[in-house]
Write a structure and sequence with these properties.
The chain is mainly α. It is built from eleven helices and four strands, in the order ββααααααββααααα. Helix content is 72%, strand content 5%. Strand 1 and strand 2 form a beta hairpin. Helix 4 runs parallel beside helix 9. The protein is globular and about 55 Å long. The chain starts with a strand and ends in a 14-residue tail after the last helix. This is Probable membrane transporter protein.
Amino acid sequence: MQIYLPIAEVSVNAFLLLGLGGIVGILSGMFGVGGGFLMTPLLFFIGIPPAVAVATEANQIVASSFSGVLAHFRRRTVDLKMGLVLLIGGLIGAAIGVQVFAMLREIGQVDLLVKLCYVVFLGIIGGLMFLESLRAIRRSKNPAARPERKKHGLVHALPFKMKFRTSGLYISVIPPIVVGLLVGILAAIMGVGGGFVMVPAMIYILGMPTKVVVGTSLFQIIFVTAFTTLLHATTNYTVDMALAVLLLIGGVVGAQIGTRIGVKLKAEQLRILLSLLVLAVCAKLALDLLIQPTELFSLGVGGH
């Protein structure tokens, strides 16, 4: 069943969009990521213009993350205090990112910027997560050789410390705010929730327990992506509501399924699966940038 998307100005199969939304929702529930790092490239591949894909995907992430975080609230695995500190940085970052996005759109460089950002960030983060996950799995198989938990020296040395009882931490608020700031910028420019950056940062930089990381990440993602969508809609006019609604329906259903799957897997297994997924998307986007396009004239500048 074909449906016309007025802002994107293309016709797409409605069931395909529902299916894509469902897949992203499952990822959201399992890993605590918005899923935009996968959905945005998929929307490129089915012909959605990059500017519309980025802005509309931020809207879809709101619903899938909200659905996922409800399940985590029931299990009391959300650190609200940490989530609010991350949110302060996230909102500031989103405002900066939308302005950068608008400037690049005016000079016609949005498509290239988005793809390059994906390749760089996904490659680095996916590789680091994969290596760390392998080490964690080896340690779990040999508990006697498991090293003591390292102290996060820089995090503990900084001022403005605050207690985060749910996470069992007493650290400076500066690192969470900086993490939130970076995630907010990524949300605006790349159309992602930023979970693929936030989840490893919360585990390895802030030292949060894995059991509260996913729910806390989703809590922050909801508000940052909602704010990003509002800014894109009012600044760049690139939010396609018809596209968003279909992705939302699939995302909400998928998030509930993903949360149930995630509970049955060990933390190390979840991290290694997410790292492999991140590396696969990175490889696909890198190939697209390197392989010669079929329409060479599309690379030219108007008037030349």
